[in-house]
């Protein structure tokens, strides 16, 4: 299995490292998901602010695990967060404004306010 990298700023990329004490054998990827990262550890692995990670998790915008009230992230959660970040942006295209055309002043059909009073 290839290491997962996240490139957030420029050319700085860092491989996603298994948690200390986690098996380093890539032949057992299922065992990686049994270890859970704290928000601080996960934020460090992803190179994001812990507050951003907590806010997204509380909104359920990213995969996470709550053990009671304790927020944790599995190895698979971190991989999915990275995958979601790599997805292309799907914002709708900005509407194209048609070019405005100027009319000669003499072509205005409106009456001035002076013309409406006797």
Describe this structure in words.
- With 118 residues, the chain is α+β, with helices and mostly antiparallel strands.
- The chain is 28% helix and 16% strand.
- It has four helices and five strands; from the N terminus they run ββαβααββα.
- The protein has helices at 29-32, 39-46, 50-58, 75-86, and strands spanning 5-9, 12-15, 36-37, 65-67, 70-74.
- The strands form two sheets. Strands 3-5-4 form a three-stranded antiparallel sheet. A two-stranded antiparallel sheet has the order 1-2.
- Helix 2 (39-46) crosses helix 3 (50-58).
- The longest helix is centred in the C-terminal third of the chain and has 12 residues, at 75-86.
- The chain is elongated, with a radius of gyration of 27 Å.
